[in-house]
Fold this protein.
Amino acid sequence: MASLQLTFKDIRQEVQRYLGFGRTTAWATMTPAQQGDVLSVVNRGFRQFYSPMPLPNESSGHDWSFLRGEGLISTEAPYSTGNITTIGLAVSIAGGGVFDANTHPDTLLIANGEYRKITEVGGATAASIDRAFSANLSSSAYEILDGTYLLPTDFGGLRGSITFRDNSDEIPLRLVNESAIRRLRSDEPVKRGVPEYAAIVPADTNNTSETAQLYKLSLWPYPDKVYDLFYTYTVYVNSLSSDSYAVADDDHVPIGGAYHSETILASCLAIAEQIVDEFNNPGKMQAKFTERLAASISYDRRNMLPDGFGYNGDHSDHIIPDAKRRRIQTVTRNNVLYP
């Protein structure tokens, strides 16, 4: 059975028609400038749809239910295999130990009763630290504590709590800002134990990177063993095509499904209108997109949200006397948990 889902080809052909390049014009016969215009319009249209403007009488844009991903981070246990030798800021490791892919700035190196942060990894057995030890070390015992972990490349924001499984229970971490983590670490710099606090921090803050903005998760205390941390997040949507467009991209489909395909197309045509029809017929396609957006948001709210918010009471009537059952009787609004 054929699907009503629009593909990238369906959308770009409609954009080609609106821009005057011809709906059935083969991609390869279009000039580089025409191809660039089409790709620019389509990508801008996707961005406008996935991060929509607030509807009239609403204070914020809609949070799409289908842009929710589930994540898992497994923490690192303290690591002390082999031994280290240091000369100034340079550290080398030998005797079976290696700096693995998870070793990065903010990882803590403890040796000789002192602790230093690893600032750069120079390979499997070499690294740099932020400050030299009080004396150069030779074949010394050490310990690495890792309290910072990179989040997925498509991470666009946390939804709800971060939890880990402790026996049969799911335990939430308390989400705080980055400065709170630094304060806790300054009070107890090398504390090991069950993670209690977490903060979301940008992994880099410069405009010279050729990759998307990345984020990292900082924990306190430093994990004393491997913990599986579970969380839900807003997915950062990638482009369906790049500047090096290939015919294979035609089969790609936008996230959102058939029920939102017309809204995605309307968003793209509203962007095209800004380029070619701004003075002759201003706002016609934008108005159509706003109409379609309201319909998509209504559908998303009606079909993807729960029927109720859970039990609303103070438990004084003993309706739910069991503590474990009370734990699941919660109210959430805008992904904020209200116990």
Observations:
- Residues 318-329 have pLDDT under 50 and may be disordered.
